[in-house]
Specification:
By secondary structure, the protein is α+β, with helices and mostly antiparallel strands. Helix content is 31%, strand content 22%. α1 crosses α2 and α12 packs across α13.
């Protein structure tokens, strides 16, 4: 009986190691008066839960080995097998556990953290704290804002969010809703999955607080008629939340580890580096635990990982940016005069990277005319087809370990660039940029900005441990 007692303790340890809300099996807890030198054996079968198979890999192998080796011996002991309830429960439980082990993609959704979009109407209300809603509406009308449109889109989003939350609750899922000002690392740690509701901007906000590749992020598009939502689940799931959750729970999806850019300031005179959040009021900033870095060291890793892109250039767009560029560990600097440099991930290749490099149909048509081809610019014209092929090739995989750099409006005249030969667009695994600018910024995902003035040097690279864990649902 000593061995069986040890097994019961080990089962309890497994249950404690695997806390989550989705029960996928049964463990047994039993006591016997024999342990206390009593005469008659007594079996008390109660239900424990095996949870979240993602976490089972953290359980010591000795515990799992003992569980699967010793349990069959327990199952066929006379005292145990005489109990129909026990036999049914434990066999059902083992079947579920084994199935879940095979399905390593299973995603627990017991505790969900919903990150709510900050609508334009909510943003305006935060800016005008001293005004009542009626006064705010009048003020916006006087400014020329289409208030009805503003309110309509706000209500649409909130109605969608309410529907999502109610669906989760009806499925027995614990839900916590936070906005950008309430979003904390403690909330992330406590949740099984983070679900931003809104569009790509809300998804980027949610991702910006996650600094490893462990916590899953699954986005829902709250306005699929107006927003593409490239980072969110396909639009059809916006009207069928339950189906999306069931597919995640059953493992009917693939993990997508989206590469992110780590930015390290190799040289910086600033003693305290603090990010400025571009979408907030100056008096009401979105604060993170890692807002600023105070260190005596020369090298400083910025507390933000770029899911889309990093931009470096003069803050005033009309001013020329003077930058020095090194690619893939080269010791040779290329001196540039341009309108800034955009460094993109595969995820960001559908965003700003695409907008900068997109080839318009008009340009293709003009090139064809130079070849004495008289093309039209209609939907099915040669110019349209060629432009579409070119633009689609700008997009690369979200898990690609390379970064795409684009030198915006590179001045190529006289002595610039120095030396000659740099391509205005290309790929690299390591990029080093030194600023010779007057009043420049380093902007991450269009949301947080750091000073990037003369002498400051930034190293950009992609590390596997910085990836963002997302999903692609199997259709």
């Amino acid at each position: 009986m000593r061995r069986e007692c040890v097994l019961a303790v080990q089962i309890g340890r497994i249950a404690r190691h695997t806390r989550s809300a989705l029960s996928i099996g049964y463990a047994l807890h039993w006591t016997s008066p024999r342990l206390f030198n009593l005469n008659a054996p007594q079996v008390d079968v109660t239900f424990f839960s095996f949870y979240n198979c993602q976490q089972l890999s953290n359980i010591p192998k000795t515990i799992l080995t003992s569980f699967f080796v010793c349990l069959p011996k327990i199952l066929f002991m006379k005292d145990f097998t005489s109990l129909p309830l026990f036999k049914k429960s434990i066999h059902t439980g083992l079947n579920n556990v084994i199935c879940k082990f095979r399905n390593y993609n299973s995603l627990a959704t017991d505790k969900v953290l919903v990150v709510s979009k900050l609508s334009r109407f909510e943003f305006e209300k935060k800016k005008a704290k001293n005004l009542t809603e009626k006064q705010l509406v009048e003020s916006l009308k006087q400014r020329g804002t289409d208030v009805e449109k503003l309110v309509r889109h706000h209500d649409l989003h909130k109605k969608f969010e309410e529907n999502v939350v109610n669906t989760f609750k009806n499925m027995g899922i614990s839900v916590k809703v936070v906005n950008r000002y309430q979003y904390t690392e403690d909330d992330i740690e406590d949740a099984d999955v983070v679900i931003p509701i809104g569009g790509d901007g809300t998804f980027l906000l949610a991702a910006s607080m996650i600094f490893d590749n462990k916590k899953p992020v699954v986005g829902l598009n709250s306005d699929p008629n107006r927003s593409e939502g490239y980072l969110c689940l396909p639009k059809k799931y916006s009207t069928n939340i339950r189906n999306a959750v069931e597919r995640l729970n059953s493992g009917n999806f693939k993990w997508l580890m989206r590469s992110r850019i780590r930015t390290t300031l190799l040289v910086c005179d600033e003693k305290k580096i603090t990010g400025r959040y571009l979408h907030d009021n100056e008096s009401d900033q979105f604060r993170r635990q890692k807002d600023s870095i105070v260190t005596g060291e020369t090298t400083k890793v910025l507390p933000c990982l770029a899911l889309n892109e990093v931009f470096m250039g003069e803050t005033l767009s009309a001013r020329v940016s003077h930058l020095q560029l090194r690619l893939n560990g080269s010791t040779e600097n290329t001196n540039l005069k341009c309108s800034g440099i955009c460094i993109s991930t595969g995820t960001g290749s559908t965003s700003w990277h695409m907008s900068i490099n997109r080839l318009p149909v008009q340009n293709v048509a003009e090139l064809l005319r130079l070849l004495d081809i008289d093309p039209t610019e209609g939907k099915d014209s040669l110019a349209t087809v060629l432009a579409d092929i070119y633009n689609k090739n700008l997009v690369f995989n979200s898990d690609d370990k390379r970064m795409a750099y684009t030198i915006r409006e590179l001045i190529s005249a006289a002595v610039w660039p120095d030396p000659k030969g740099i391509k205005p667009r290309g790929f690299a695994k390591k990029i080093e940029i030194k600023s010779n600018c007057f009043d420049a910024s380093l902007v991450i995902d269009g949301g947080v900005s750091y000073q990037f003035n003369d002498g400051t040097t930034a190293l950009l690279e992609i590390m596997p441990e910085d990836a963002l864990r997302t999903v692609i649902i199997n259709d």
